[in-house]
Amino acid sequence: MSPYKGQVGFKRVFNATGYSLAGLRAAFRGEAAFRQLVLLNLVLIPLSLVFSVSRGERAMLIAVCLLALIVELFNSAIEAVVDRISLERHPLSRDAKDMGSAAQFVALTMIAVVWALILLG
Questions:
Q1: Binding residues for a divalent metal cation
Q2: Which option is the CATH number for 32-120: 1.10.3720.10, 3.40.190.10, 1.20.1260.10, 1.10.287.3610?
Q3: Which residues contribute to the annotated binding site?
Q4: Residues in the annotated binding site for ATP
Q5: What is the Cα–Cα distance from 76 to 21, expressed in whole angstroms?
Q6: Other CB atoms within 10 A of residue 45 CB
Q7: What's its EC (predicted)?
Q8: Rounded Cα–Cα distance for residues 23 and 48 (Å)
Q9: Contact 118, 65 (CB under 8 A)
Q10: Which of 48, 64, 72, 118 is flagged as catalytic?
Q11: What is this structure's pTM?
Q12: Which residues of 69-101 are buried (b: 16+ CB within 10 A; e: fewer)?
């Protein structure tokens, strides 16, 4: 058992919620890409409610938008950890950051593909 593990039960859920909100605030304050994705979600999610699509299709339209936010949070976390370890240029650091960026590229591509298939298909 890790000595860094904290509370259990409701106290743990309460603490975890606070940490999650702090992470969202940090991402919003410090990451322009996250703010841009929030703006994109503020446009696309309400727009998904306008189209005449099935509930499942609407769920997919919304899910891919939220997934891009999740991927950006992971990407930002990877970048923060790499920078925390060292700001020195290193091939493994570059690869880690590039892979996080590639994951976000795939997530954004997924938004375009899913929206196109549902709305044009």
A1: 31, 79
A2: 1.10.287.3610
A3: 12, 19, 31, 58, 72, 79, 88-90, 97-98, 101
A4: 12, 19, 31, 79, 88-90, 97-98
A5: 15
A6: 14
A7: 2.7.1.107
A8: 27
A9: no
A10: 72
A11: 0.87
A12: bebbbebbebbeebeeeeeeeeeebeebeeebe
Tokens 């790499």, residue located: 82
- pLDDT tens, residue order, the chain (121 aa): 666 666 778 888 888 999 999 999 999 999 999 999 999 999 999 999 999 999 999 999 999 999 999 999 999 999 999 999 998 999 999 999 999 999 999 999 999 999 999 999 8
Indicate if 72 belongs to the active site: yes
Q: State both tokens at 5.
A: 């593990």
Residue reference for tokens 């298909």: 121
